[in-house]
Amino acid sequence: SGQPWVTHRSTDELLDTYSDFSEDVKVLLRCLPSPSVWAIHGVWPPLESYSKRCVSLVGDAAHGMLPHLGAGAGQGIEDTYVLFRLLTHPSTKLSNVAEVLQAYDSIRRERAHSVHVGSTRAGEIYENFGPSGSGVEGLKADLEGLWDAVWHYDLRGVVDSEIRRLEVSIFDQ
After folding, report:
1. How far is CA 58 from CA 2, 61, 150, 155, in A?
2. pTM here?
3. Which of 17, 21, 119, 134 is most buried, judged by most C-beta within 10 A?
4. Which tens digits make up the pLDDT trace of 90-116?
5. How many alpha carbons fall within 13 Å on the CB side of residue 169?
């Protein structure tokens, strides 16, 4: 079978792992009644497509990512919004659903991949592997603007633009 999601460790194993930490940290670690190690899984490499014919993947099934930007669940909500807007358009019919789902794919893959990469980068920074080095100033420099792509994205505008493109191509057929 595959790797377990959670494995349990003894307090002695935990203390051994953190043996070079301060005594204050060790006192806190001794307070853990049942230490565990959690696996964090993501989809990598990115999928080549989220849609095939009349089936599409959304959320973690399409682009499971690390939690370091706190934006993974929001990506699933964005997926749902895009699908809702495209599939409820008055011109969507059974005969063009595959093309409409390809439009979903073209909107979502680039966006979700960008957030996925940002989340991975954030995790590296949090673990002190950022490009600017260690220390508060390095951390601050590395985190600067990291959430901009998440917070300042005009999803409605992107979907409106794609609907206008579809109206010209497949919806007017």
Report:
1. 24, 6, 18, 16
2. 0.80
3. 119
4. 988 989 999 999 999 999 999 999 999
5. 11
